[in-house]
Amino acid sequence: DQQVKQNSPSLSVQEGRISILNCDYTNSMFDYFLWYKKYPAEGPTFLISISSIKDKNEDGRFTVFLNKSAKHLSLHIVPSQPGDSAVYFCAASSLTTGGTSYGKLTFGQGTILTVHP
Amino acid sequence: DGGITQSPKYLFRKEGQNVTLSCEQNLNHDAMYWYRQDPGQGLRLIYYSQIVNDFQKGDIAEGYSVSREKKESFPLTVTSAQKNPTAFYLCASKDLYNSPLHFGNGTRLTVT
Fold it and tell me: Do B50 and A102 touch (CB under 8 A)?
C-alpha cells in the first residue's frame, strides 16, 4: 500500500523554464510534507516543507503547493538550472503516527529531474 | 562542521554473515533513524530511536537490529535473517522539534 506516490518517474526541462514535480498521498492523517533532493550515492538533502495549515510555502526558487482536498502537493522550481538535476523525493508525516519529532517519514518513489542547458 | 558520518561507503559481504553499519552524528540530535533505499522505490524506515537506550521498529525491521548506547551513535546490524539485504542504507537524525531530517551519505551494502 503506497501511501505517497510520485507518478512521474522522470521529468526533462529546459534551463530557465519551470519544473513542476507532483506528489499524491492517500493517508488523510498526514499533516507535514517535505521535499528532498538526492544526488547518486549521496544522502537526500532537505529542500522545503509545508504543514497542512498552509497551502503554499516559498523559499527562493522553490515553492511547494498543498491541495488538501485533492491530497496533492507539488514542487515548482523557477527558473530551473542544470544544477537542479537530481532525484526529488516527496515525503509525508503525521503528528499522531510520526511522534512529536516528525521523523517517521513516508517517501514517494522519487522523480528524476533533468535540466538541459 | 556538524554532520552525520556513515562508514564504510561500500560494503561487501557473503550471504549468511551478519554485518554492522556505522552511523555517528555530532549534531547533538536526540533522534536517529535508519532508512533503506531500493531501486525505483522510496526510502523505507527500518528502525528509529528518540532517546538513548530506547528504539522502535519501523516499517521493515525484520532481519535488522540496532542499539543506542550513546547519543551520537546508532549502529545497524543486518543479520543473516534479512532476505534481501543488498540495498543503499541511509542514517538520519533530527532534534525533537519540527525540523527536517538530516541524512548521512549512505552505505551501499552488497551481499552475494
Answer: no
Q: Are strands A32-38 and A45-51 parallel, antiparallel or unpaired?
A: antiparallel
The closest of B77, B3, B54 to A99, measured between CA atoms, is B54
How far apart CA B56 and CA B27 sit, in angstroms, is: 21
Bridge partners for A73 per DSSP: A23, A66
Nearest by CB to B50, from A49, A101, A105: name it.
A101
- Whose cell is 523554464? That residue is A17
Phi, psi of A98 (to 5 degrees): -90, -5
Q: Where does residue B76 rank: exposed (0-12), middle (13-18), buried (19+ CB within 10 A)?
A: buried
Interstrand relation of B10-13 and B107-111 (parallel, antiparallel or unpaired): parallel
Task: Quick: pLDDT tens for A31-69.
Answer: 999 999 999 888 999 999 999 999 999 999 999 999 999
